[in-house]
Amino acid sequence: MLLKSKISPLGLFLDPELNKPYHEARLGKLTSSEWYHLMAKEGIGKGGYSYIYRKVGEALSGRPAKDDVVVNATEHGLDYEREGLMKFGKQAGLKGAVLVQKLIIDDERCGGTPDGILILNDSEDGLYHNVKTIEVKCPYSFDGYIRAWKCKTPADLKKEKPDWYWQVLHQMFICDCLQGYFVAYQPFFSKGGLNVIEFRKIDLVPEFKLIAERKQQAISIFESTFKELTQ
Fold first, then answer.
1. pTM summary value
2. Which segments of the chain have a pLDDT < 50?
3. What local confidence, expressed as pLDDT, does residue 72 receive?
4. Nearest partner of 79 among 11, 150, 16, judged by Cα
5. pLDDT for position 169
6. pLDDT of the residue at 38
7. How far are the Cα atoms of 31, 129, 159, 172 from residue 2, in angstroms, in the given order?
8. Which of 6, 110, 166, 174 allows an S-S link to 36, with CB 3.0 to 4.6 Å?
9. DSSP 3-state of 96
């Protein structure tokens, strides 16, 4: 069940000039796209601490820790992710409303932006009772896409691209949904241009428990570091 209040009015637009409020709202937040930094087998290691410290720096400065560098691969993804979302919806025969690239604010320190949130049941109690997340990737290189296309299960994706794997799971976590989809899309292939992997929470319960544990650990590190710097 997804609290409607978690869905911010902010989202991504094709015109980058319109995205300033969205990027400002993400400052200081641990987000789905970089959640993999917190999911190392050994725990929140050096990479996880560096990620948390960058986010503390954002909260203190109001500036992004990393400048957005627009390169061919980035532009390719922005241009075609929504097209891939529509292709997937048509192929899957999805029924229901789809929220496109809306910022989900899980709490003060965490959030994420699924490329799509499929809403199957609306209600008047402040909750969406049945939702599914959709994350679309459009690898720029042909070999990168084919590697993603060859992944047929969540386990395959975890092995090939753990950052994408944890991104999908974290999006499902913050939206409190039982199913999610990973979609790889290549707009220029005459055949094999779409690959879909279904994620089911019931098959991945230990992973979701681990996300919850790492979230609490990361927030604790964030808050203690923030306090030390502001005393």
1. 0.93
2. none
3. 59
4. 16
5. 98
6. 98
7. 17, 7, 29, 10
8. 166
9. coil
- Axis-axis angle for helices 46-61, 205-230 (nearest 10): 50
* pLDDT computed for residue 167 by the predictor: 98
Question: What is the 8-class DSSP label of residue 27?
Answer: T
Considering the four listed CATH numbers 3.90.320.10, 3.40.50.720, 3.90.1150.10, 3.30.70.260, the one that applies to the domain covering 2-230 is 3.90.320.10
* Inter-residue contact 218 to 38 (CB < 8 Å): yes
pLDDT at 123: 76
d(CA 133, CA 173): 10
The CA-atom distances, in angstroms, between 108 and each of 26, 59, 114 are 10, 11, 18
pLDDT at 1: 76
- Two tokens at 73? 């691969």
Q: How far is CA 162 from CA 30, 46, 80, 158, in A?
A: 17, 17, 22, 4
